Amino acid sequence: MGAEGNTVEQPPQDTTSESVDALLEAARYDDIDDLMSIASVGVSLDSKDSEGRTALHMASANGHLDIVDYLISNGVDVNASNTEKNTPLHWACLNGHIEVVKRLVLAGASLSLLNSHERTPVDEAVSRGKLDVIDAINEAAAQVELTGTRVSESVNLSGDQMDTVLD
Questions:
Q1: Residue pair 94/125 in contact by the 8 Å Cβ criterion
Q2: Is residue 166 pLDDT above 70, yes or no?
Q3: pTM for this structure?
Q4: Which CATH code of 1.10.10.60, 1.25.40.20, 3.40.30.80, 1.25.40.10 fits the domain covering 86-167?
């Protein structure tokens, strides 16, 4: 009985739907303290809800840069996809969150993953006329190339694509 009494009990991994929902809600509403508290009891920061959304999806969709930075620094999957095959980058592009887009690209988010509508994150930005997002992607891709890291693809709109955006 000697050695057994000295073991430290680890908190159980809490991945109930309620705890995952609480994690995603904290990310959605920019509550870093709640997010960290929930993670501290064993909820994985990569947990997905019933629709496949992660905390990074929620923070990216809502432009919460501090949460995005925290999640990336803790090694979450930047290319996680939900049931519609959207990644956090798809959502950041759709909603025009330029700084989040840059952070995701710099962290290795793929520019070429297709969602269930056969659209890349860039396609989603173009569909909403968010040309500033395209500029942000190009800027981040150039920065990644300068640091010697590969980017999945660079983004340059052809004249036809630009005409479509401007129509």
A1: yes
A2: no
A3: 0.79
A4: 1.25.40.20
